[in-house]
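User: Could you go from structure to sequence for me? I need the amino acid at each position, not a summary. Structure tokens:
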């Protein structure tokens, strides 16, 4: 019998993978808490919470228990014309937690569709009021997903070449950096002067796929407030930042100018099932509320508001609000800060940054000297029982909130071992 990795090769096409250069996929047999276990029984700390989803740990008994009960009561049902308790309860709880003014929730399937929905809502919001606005504004290097609308607003375009010219028109601005706000505001002013910009899409405070690039809060607030004054809708993509990662439940809470729409996914369902949500203000909703059928929002996915996914999300919120998880978040924030003080002066650390439980450091290395540097760093950590996904020369951590102090130390020791290894290799 071949192992999983060998069987996988026959018929599976993996996401974001060039199979010719990366033929191997490691078989994972099970997961529990912060650990992933491969087929051979080796354990790895999931240092990125499986792409920022499993923030309460894997196979959490409370979440599984809640979803198992739901499964026996209502599994799946059409969400046009019908409704159910898990969706209604989730909407009640989320609107209580989201930044003030978020009134209505629209369900979809993942982060990309949450953004896709927000972009379509924004375009139709203006259209329904007799204004045709057909351009979007977004940050350079933002990432918002892989469907056409979401891909269009994503600035990370290295992989978008084949689709160039087929996407929405998007104008781009750099992220706010301290001391550079005036230039940014002037640029945003020029790019929106023709009145064609319908909405601004942004990852608040930290851009995940751009190697955890952080923003200047005051600059971001000034930008948002200027755009709002021009009637441009603000779409906060909190797919990565949502549910405690930046130290508050949502990153938008830390910025006085709140968004009109918010996109949620990833940790929304605690790493159990896929689901996306786009929330919006009463003002946005009201532009669709009409005697005219055509003014409604005719977008829908078959599994909209799946009861099991809603139940997983509710269980996740119970945990997020628990003392244990709140302590875990504080513990990780403090531990990252202490580690950062220790490591900052190291000759191989070019820069480091932290936003809540997110910690990233850029290595001072000439990656061209190493062949595939990223793959080597990945393998280095795997050998030490740590699963993380370096981006270029950036190593970042986003550990589950239940990670203990000893497990955090193992992650930091792994990074220090890498620095030592690289120092020895240096000519
Ligand atoms: C991951 C991500 C998306 C896309 O979500 P998918 O569920 O992978 O489609 C969108 N925006 C941000 C900020 C993300 O991190």
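Assistant: Here is the amino acid at each position, in order:
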């Amino acid at each position: 019998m071949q192992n999983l990795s060998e069987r996988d090769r026959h018929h599976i096409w993996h996401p974001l993978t060039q199979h010719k250069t990366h033929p191997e996929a490691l078989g994972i047999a099970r997961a529990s808490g912060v650990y992933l276990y491969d087929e051979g029984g080796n354990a790895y700390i999931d240092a990125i919470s499986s792409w920022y989803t499993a923030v309460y740990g894997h196979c959490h008994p409370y979440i599984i228990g809640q979803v198992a009960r739901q499964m026996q009561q209502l599994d799946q049902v059409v969400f046009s014309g019908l409704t159910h308790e898990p969706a209604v309860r989730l909407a009640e709880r989320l609107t209580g937690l989201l930044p003030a003014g978020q009134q209505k929730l629209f369900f979809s399937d993942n982060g990309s569709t949450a953004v896709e929905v927000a972009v379509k809502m924004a375009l139709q919001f203006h259209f329904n009021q007799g204004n045709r606005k057909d351009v979007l504004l977004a940050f350079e290097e933002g990432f918002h997903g892989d469907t056409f609308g979401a891909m269009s607003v994503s600035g990370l375009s290295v992989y978008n070449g084949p689709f160039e010219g087929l996407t929405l028109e998007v104008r781009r601005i750099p992220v706010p950096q301290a001391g550079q706000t005036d230039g940014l505001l002037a640029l945003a002013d020029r790019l929106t002067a023709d009145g064609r910009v319908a909405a601004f899409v942004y990852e608040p405070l930290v851009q995940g796929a751009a190697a955890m690039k952080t923003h200047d809060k005051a600059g971001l607030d000034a930008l948002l407030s200027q755009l709002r004054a021009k009637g441009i809708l603000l779409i906060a993509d909190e797919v990565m930042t949502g549910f405690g990662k930046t130290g508050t439940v949502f990153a938008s809470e830390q910025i006085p100018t709140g968004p009109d729409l918010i996109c949620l996914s990833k940790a929304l369902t605690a790493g159990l099932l896929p689901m996306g949500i786009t929330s919006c203000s009463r003002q946005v909703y009201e532009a669709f509320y009409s005697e005219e059928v055509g003014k409604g929002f005719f977008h829908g996915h078959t599994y909209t508001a799946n009861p099991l996914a809603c139940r997983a999300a509710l269980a996740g919120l119970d945990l997020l609000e628990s003392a244990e998880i709140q302590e875990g978040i504080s513990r990780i924030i403090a531990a990252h800060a202490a580690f950062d003080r220790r490591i900052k002066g190291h000759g191989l650390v070019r820069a480091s940054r932290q936003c809540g439980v997110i910690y990233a450091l850029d290595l001072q290395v000439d990656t061209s000297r190493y062949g595939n540097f990223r793959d080597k760093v990945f393998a280095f950590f795997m050998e030490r029982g740590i699963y993380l996904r370096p981006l270029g020369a950036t190593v970042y951590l986003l550990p589950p909130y239940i990670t203990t102090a000893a497990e955090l130390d193992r992650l930091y020791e792994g990074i220090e071992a890498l620095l030592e290894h690289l120092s020895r290799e240096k000519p």
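One structural detail worth keeping in mind: The pocket of pyridoxal-5'-phosphate is lined by residues 110-112, 115, 143-145, 203, 208, 237, 239-240, 265 (CB under 6 Å).
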